[in-house]
Structures are given as C-alpha cells and as structure tokens.
Amino acid sequence: MAAKVNTNALLTETCDKTRQKEKEIISTKAALAELKEKIAEKMSKLEKDEEGYDKENTEMKKFLESQEAKISQKKHEFENLNVKSSDLQHLISLKSTAVLDEEIALENLREESKQLEKSLEFRKIDMLALLEQKIQLESELLHLQSKIAQEKEHFNKELVKTKEDLCDAKYLNKKLKSENEALHQKYEQVLEEQQL
C-alpha cells in the first residue's frame, strides 16, 4: 500500500514538472513570436525608410547637379562679363551675390544629405542588433527544447520503472493474498481438528 502511495506521488510530481516545462516552452515561443513580429515590423519600416532616403538622395543629387550646372553657367557668364565695360560691374556684383547664395544652399543640401546617410546607418545598426537578439533567443529556445527533451526522456524512464515497480507490487500483493488465504484455510482446518 505504501509503495502504491509513493508511486502515485511520484507520478503526480512528474506530471507537475512536465506541465511546468510545457508552460515554459509556450511562454518562450510566445516571446520569440512577439520578437519576430517586432523585428519584421522594424525591418519593414527600415526598408520603407531606406527607399524614401534613396529617393530623396536621388532627387537631391539631381537637384545638386542642376544647381552645379547653373553655377558653372553663371561663372562662365561672369567671366564673359568681366571682359565688358565698367558700367556692367554693378550687375556682375549682383550676380556674384546670387551665386554665393546658391553655393551656400548647395552646401546646406550636401550637409543634409550627409545627415540622412548617418541616420540610415544608425537604423541599419539597430536592425543588426535586433537580428542578433533574435539569433540569441532562438539559440536559448533550442537549448531549452533540448533540455526538456532530456528531462522528458528521463521522465519516461522513471515512468517505465514506476510501472514495473507497480506491476511488481501488484504481483507481491496477489502473492501475499494467496499466502494469507492459504494460512487462513490451514488455521480453520486446525481449529476444526481441535474441535474434533
């Protein structure tokens, strides 16, 4: 009877451990799924941002090339104007001021392009960090699954042994009952013989 109680207690404890491990697996898988979803969202946003930056950079480069062409043309005009009479010097001065403003605007656009490139680089670094975190979580999940598989195998072995012990206990109990019945019969037989 005590062996049966111990066996039931062991089975209950083992089942509880198995359920706990299954809960841990479910929790870990849920966390991994959530992280994958966040990574997918981040990557999608980064790809869209990158497309936007590429488009802006292309438009900016075209604009810069256009501005550079204009500046080159204006410089050529100024060189031609320098050959003209002094009456045109005031007009040349005004155009020089306009060219300077355009060069400043061009430099500002170049600086803005550099800032956009830096921002894109930072976003790429963030994406790489998220990918590394994903790899780490997947590694931890594999390790946990391996550990659970080992514990499950150990549990199965213990379960087999427990079943064998239970079978042995049943056999012993049946044997003891049989011996007890035989002794009881002998006892009754002795009583009958004494009464005679």
In short, what is this structure?
This protein is 96% helix and 0% strand. With 196 residues, the chain is mainly alpha-helical.
Keywords, please?
mainly alpha; Helix Hairpins; 196 residues; single chain; 96% helix
Question: Structural class, from helix and strand content?
Answer: mainly alpha
The total of beta strands comes to 0
> Segments where pLDDT lies below 50 for 5+ residues?
none
Question: Helical element count?
Answer: 2
How far apart, in Å, are the first and last alpha carbons?
Answer: 39 Å
Structure write-up:
This protein has 196 residues and is mostly helical. It has a single domain (2-195), classed as Helix Hairpins. Helices cover 96% and strands 0% of the residues. The radius of gyration is 44 Å and the shape is rod-shaped. The two termini are 39 Å apart.
Topology overview:
Layout: H1 2-82, H2 89-195
Helix pairs in contact: 1-2
